[in-house]
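The material for today's practical consists of a large collection of protein records. There is nothing in a record beyond a sequence line and a structure line. As an example, a complete record with its sequence and its C-alpha cells follows:
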Amino acid sequence: MSNNRNQRYRYLIAIFLVLPILGFSPGDTYAKTIIRFATLAPEGSAWMKAIRALDQEVRDSTGGDVQFKLYPNMAMGDEKDVLRKIRLGQINGAGFTGVGLGEIDPELRILELPYLFDTEQELDYVTDQLTTYFSDRLKDKGFVLLGWADVGWVYFLSKKPVADPSQLDGVKVWMWEGDPLAEAFFEELHKAPVQLPITDVHFSLQTGLIDAVYCSPLAALALQWYTKTEYISDIPFTNAIGAVLIDKGTFDKISPDNQRILLDLSRKQLRELLVQSRKDNAESYQVMLQQGLKAAPSTQAQRDQMRTVGERVQQRLTGSLYSQELLDRLKGLISEYRASHPGKK
C-alpha cells in the first residue's frame, strides 16, 4: 500500500514538472482564441480596413492570444446564413446590419423606424442611452456587443424618379427577404416588393427582375448597384444600424484581461469607423451624382406625407417587434435631445 501511494506521488510530481515545459500551468485555463469573423463588406472597403486594424491592435495588445480570421465580401453568405453558422459553431462573430440584428433581437429594429431621426446626433444620443439595455438583451440571447457600426442613411435608387415611396407604382422594388420592418413599411404604402436575399440583388438589377433598391450611398457605390439605376432620392427614409457581435461562448473563453482589451479596442475602432463611414457616405452620394446618377427632388408636402407613413409603421409594429414602453422611451429621448439642441436639423 505504501509503495502504491509513493508511486502515485511520484507520478503527480512528474506531471507538474512536465506541464510547464509543455506551456501549461495548473491555473492556466485560457487558450489562444481565434475569432472566425464574417461580414458582408467587400475587401478594400473602409469597413474591412477598420476590422483589419482592430485585428492587428488586438493581436498586439494580447500578445497574439486573441486574433481574428476574417471572411469578407459575403463569403459566408447572407446574414441569416452567417447567424446559422455562428449557432452551429462554424464561425464566432460577425458584423451585422439591422436585418441580422433583428433575427437575434427584434427590438433592435426600433432604431431603424422610417422617418424617425432627423440627425445623426439624435441617433447617437439615443443609441448611447440604450446601449446597456440592448447589450444586456443580446447577452441573454448568447451574444456580446463589441460596438455599433451603423451602415448609414438609406436612400431609394431606381430606374425612374422616386422622390418619395408613394411614387413606387409600377416599380419593381427590392425588399430584403424576410425583413419584417421593410415588409410593414411597404404594406403601409400598399406596395408589393420583390423579396430577395442581398446576395441576389446585383444580378437581379442586371436582369430586370428588380429596378429599384434601397441602401446607403457607400453601399450603393461599393456594391455597384448604382450603375444599374438612374435616380436616387434626395432625402433618406431611415438610418440603417449595424453592430459587431461575438458569440458569448467564445467570449467567455477569453481571459478577463483580454476581454477588456477586446471590448475597449473594438469600441474605439468602431467609433472611428462610424465617423469615417458617415463622411464616406456623404462623399459617395456626391460621387454617384458626378458619375451620372440624378437626384429625385421631393417637396415639403411629400416629406410631410413620409412622416405620416413613418408614424403608421411605428404603430403597426408596436407589440410585435417592440413594446409600447420602449417606443415611448425612445421618442422621449429624441424629444429630450431636441429640447436641449433647438434648431439643429
